Amino acid sequence: MPRFYFDVRDNGSFTPDDEGGEFDSLDAAEIAAAEAAAEIGRDRWPMSAARKVTIEVRNEHRQLIGTVMVLFEVHRIDPASQILST
What we know:
The chain is α+β, with helices and mostly antiparallel strands. The protein is about 20% helix and about 35% strand. Strands 1, 2, 3, 4 and 5 form a five-stranded antiparallel beta sheet that branches. The N and C termini lie far apart (about 65 Å).
């Protein structure tokens, strides 16, 4: 099975993947990368109103072959500011 590495960029920080993981295909690796990015964003999201997580997918030769990005944003709206004038 081919080995893929998921390097993580999370709001400016970078964490390289030195171990990697084996997946049946690039499609399976991309699904796992998307799930990992979503989980990282969800777990760390309360720290700020916006969270951008990018997983850089590398092949067994450590060549960049794709990226998966998840962006979480929260926009609060004050109901009092929405008063309509008639």
